[in-house]
Amino acid sequence: MAKMKPEELIQGLNYNPPSTPWMDLKADTSPGNWAYPGKPDIVSYLKDEGLPVANPREWVPSDEDWKLPPNWQDIIHQGFRERLDKYRSLKVFMDICVRCGACADKCHYFIGSGDPKNMPVLRAELMRSIYRKDFTLAGKIMSKLTGSRVMTEDVLKEWFIYFYQCTECRRCSLFCPYGIDTAEVTMMARELMHLVGLNINWIMEPVANCNRTGNHLGIQPQAFKDIMDFMVDDIEEVTGVRVKAPLNEPGHEILFITPSGDAFADPGIFTFMGYLILFHYLDLDYTWSTYASEGGNFGLFTSSETMKKLNAKMYAEANRLGCKWILGGECGHMWRVINQYMDTMNGDIQGPQMTTPVNPITGTVFKNAAATKMVHIAEFTADLIKHGKLKFDKSRNDHRRITFHDSCNPARAMGLLDEPREVIKACCNHFYEMPSNTIREMTYCCAGGSGLNTDEIMDIRLRGGMPRGKALAHVQEKHDVNTLSCVCAIDRATLIPLADYWAPGVEISGVHELVGNALILEGEQERTMDLRQEPLKGFEDEV
Amino acid sequence: MTAMYSLVFVFLLVLIPLIGVGSAHLEFFFAVCVPTTAIIIFLAGFVYKIFQWTRSPVPFRIPTTGGQQQSLDWIKQNKWDNPSTGAQTFIRMLLEVFTFRSLFRNTKVDLNKGTGVLGYSSSKWLWMFAILFHYGFFIVAVRHMRLFTEPVPIIFEWLEFGDGILQLGVPRLYLSDLLLVTGISLLLIRRLWDSRVRYISLFTDYFPLLLILGVALSGIYMRYFAKVDVVAIKAVTMGMVTFSYANLPFEQIGASFYVHVFLVSTLLAYFPFSKLMHLGGVFLSPTRNMPNDTRIKHHENPWNPDIKPHSYEAYEKDFGPAMHEAGIPVVDPANRGEQA
Predict the structure, then answer these.
(1) Which of A380, A469, B18, B159 has its CA 20 to 30 A from that of B197?
(2) Is there a contact between A338 and B304 if contact means CB atoms under 8 Å apart?
(3) Cα B141 to Cα A52, A324, B154, B233, distances in angstroms
(4) With an 8 Å Cβ cutoff, is A309 touching chain B?
């Protein structure tokens, strides 16, 4: 793939389905089509923690034998029944699809591959065909006519390939006349597969890490402190100001939690620095935490139980430190969890000290966070800007011509669309939107969401990244855009290879990196470089 | 192939009443017993299906948000596509059910392999076909209520007057007949024409389309060509709904009536067990019928499991001494090298 040029990829695309009926097509399980399975010791650890994973073992998806438990069919059947009883969504979505095909060309993986099983309708039919056979009378007696089939090992393999080729981005569900949400179907299919021991390490290991060390990347507390000290040094180098970086300190008003990805690598670390600069500027009464050092939640991509267990740490830490409310950083799926699951799952462990968030600088009451007590950093910063509390030198982002990528979850599972744009426009002079069919609620996935941001499936990711990549290349050509900004830590990792492939020359940045660059700190030195320590416009010769 | 099976199946359904009435003279059976049974199956099946769906709880609020959320006061919320209250959600549902708003968004991907441009064009065909069909069918169904009511409520009279307002032909042409047949034919043609839709289509996709087309065509044949005795038919239909079966004028009614009634009966009996239940299901879709408000208000999951996070104490047990050494506050005095 790395060798295939984008033009060649496009030439090879065919959106017309093959002549063989889809039920007769076996899934391709050769390497490159799947992410590595979970390591046995990691799966065992999660099993011991009481989470619904099973069958830890060494196995390879390209092998014929997947080492399934002997009664795997029964396990899947019982698990399916249990979920039909627990989720009205699943029951309704299994029953009411009319196969109108409106969703077919809405999926980034279909657009980038032409594989008919990447049409959302067919992805869901992989599961519906089993549902009809196992749970409907017509399906039991008239298999062929009703599109029903028996659960075989080949079907299970097909599930593993295609339900780990859905990023749960929910773009299809926006266009579906009944709101059928493939993300929901994929989540259920993945839960079922966990029961028989089908999982991927790129999800299992972060889950295990997050549980034990507090974050997906497995950064231990002392290393987290080192990283923060290093960033404080770098900020001082750029600004001349030594910012405060409170960590695990009890007694502050606000607990700040952001994805650990931003503590780890370029360009996320510059967003991390942006937060530190902003909070120092405001002299905010807040703390970071190592115990709850993860905003993201790979439990969302595993099972509702896992999601709940990882998410519960946020309130547990707010309670332990006596914080009144939680401020959350830039992350995509984190905000789906917070917006649609957190209070339902863990609201009962919120301590009595927690109150409806109030911006201590502006006095704004965040009424839309009255239950969760958790505010998005873009809401927080946009509010500060509106009240004129932030002094910016916008010219310090003049070397960047910026467009904004709406991350799937904040867009379609929350509706955080204007807040980040307000922030970008306040601290940058050059902002251009990508075409309207590719942004806001119609945004395209980075093709690495839902735990699929791993390199062994880079081919699939780059193909799925085509719609986003093409839209990006469009504004690169038209407006000379050189920066793709986003509010998601996974995006900051996945959009880099995507841009390198589809729109070479475009860099990726978080929104609060731009804030950190433009914000005028009290007592700062003349800035000649940005947080990446690259020269600002007009200072190219000095750095 | 599946389309052919469906067509053959519908033809068989036409033959059954033709033989049953023509040769076996089972008029009462086909005019009264079959439709009465079908109506009972339809009503009971519909209620059962809704009951079966609603028996499963909605553990989480998972609306698909189609616009700006309720946020800061000065940021304009898209209340219809991202509702945060019950009233706004009600409007979203009205628009979904009556105008097929989600389908109206439909776009088509166009990949120009020559230039490499990936474009999107508005594609409202499916929306238009669906609107034609559903409204046509709806008006036809409601218009038929005059056969089951005596005296006929004024609203049905008005509907019939409006439907025939063009005053074309004798008997007058109903616009809804045109809408229904045009809509369903276009939907069928699209399903056969579009290679992707054809690829995913099952017998159970073609069958209802052809069955409804059969219902419509047999009805049209009755009215415009066979010109059946409507007064006699009304006597039969009123007899059926009032359970007074004496002296029904079967001999004045042509065979096309029995075909029409048998196809409608099949449709009614098939309805609750088929994808046609999207009629009921759309109201229960959790991505559409819930406000985006779980950051504002608590939503209860009836089976919320008791799961605790990995505790801070366990965390400090793992990392405490190293934390202390790095200057991070620790709780357990032992981790500070002190006696507990």
Answers:
(1) A469
(2) no
(3) 50, 58, 16, 16
(4) yes
CB contact under 8 Å between A175 and B106, yes or no, is yes
- Mean pLDDT of the region B310-318: 97
Structure-token pair, residue A119: 């049409």
Q: Which of B68, B71, B102, B300 to mutate to test the interface with A (most CBs of A within 10 A)?
A: B71
Say which of B64, B82, B323 has its CB closest to residue A173: B64
The values of phi and psi at residue B107, to 5°, are -130, 170
Phi first, then psi, for residue A451 (nearest 5°) are: 80, 20
A412 — contact with chain B (CB < 8 Å)? yes
Question: Quick check: A1 contacting B, CB < 8 Å?
Answer: no
Q: Which residue of B has its CA nearest to A250?
A: B329
Interior/surface letters B130-152, b for 16+ CB within 10 angstroms, e for the rest: bbbbbebbebbeebeebbeeeee
Examine the pLDDT at A2 and tell me if it is beyond 90: no
Interface test with B, best of A340, A365, A387, A501 (most B CBs within 10 A): A340
Write b or e for each residue in A458-485: b if 16 or more Cβ atoms lie within 10 A of its Cβ, otherwise e: bbbbbbbbbbbbbbbbbbbeebebbbbb
d(CA A228, CA A287): 12
Of A101, A102, A344, the CB nearest to B299: A344
Q: Give me the helices (H) in A215-368, please.
A: 221-239, 261-264, 268-282, 304-321, 333-337, 343-346
- What is the least distance, in Å, from the CA of B196 to any CA of chain A? 6
Cβ count within 10 A of residue B212 = 23
According to DSSP, the β-strands at A402-405 and A374-376 are: unpaired
Q: Please, are residues A471 and A481 in contact by the beta-carbon 8 Å criterion?
A: no
pLDDT tens-place string over residues A448-475: 999 999 999 999 999 999 999 999 999 9
Q: Which residues of B touch A100 (CB under 8 A)?
A: 103, 126, 130, 197
Question: What's phi and psi for B144, nearest 5 deg?
Answer: -65, -15
> Would you list the domain boundaries of chain A?
6-30+54-198, 207-518
Calpha distance A47→A417 (Å, rounded) = 39
Write the pLDDT tens digit of every residue in A179-200.
999 999 999 999 999 999 999 9
CB–CB of A344 and B298 under 8 A? Answer: yes
Q: Does A30 touch chain B (CB under 8 A)?
A: no
How would residue A543 be classed by pLDDT, with cut points 50, 70 and 90?
low
- pTM as predicted: 0.96
Contact A262, A488 (CB under 8 A): no
Task: Specify the length of chain A in residues.
Answer: 543
Instruction: Determine if residue A179 is left, alpha or beta; phi over 0 gives left, psi from -120 to 50 gives alpha, anything else beta.
Output: left
The whole-angstrom distance between A70's CA and the closest CA on chain B is: 28
Q: How many helices (H) and strands (E) does chain A have?
A: 25, 7
Prior bond of B151 cis (ω within 30°): yes
Residue B309 — left, alpha, or beta (φ > 0 → left; ψ -120 to 50 → alpha)? beta
Query: Which ipTM did the prediction report?
Result: 0.95
Encoded amino acid at B243, one letter? F
Which of A543, A517, A521, A271 shows the shortest CA–CA distance to A397?
A: A517
Q: What residue has token string 């995006």? A: A491
Class of domain B2-284: mainly alpha
Closest Cα partner for B188 from B216, B220, B155? B216
Q: Which residues of chain B does A173 touch, with a Cβ-Cβ cutoff of 8 Å?
A: 64, 287
| Residue B221, phi-psi category: left (phi > 0), alpha (psi -120 to 50), beta (remainder) | alpha
> Is the predicted pLDDT of residue A1 greater than 80, yes or no?
no
Domain ranges of chain B: 2-284, 312-340
Rounded CA-CA distance B169/B173 in Å is 6
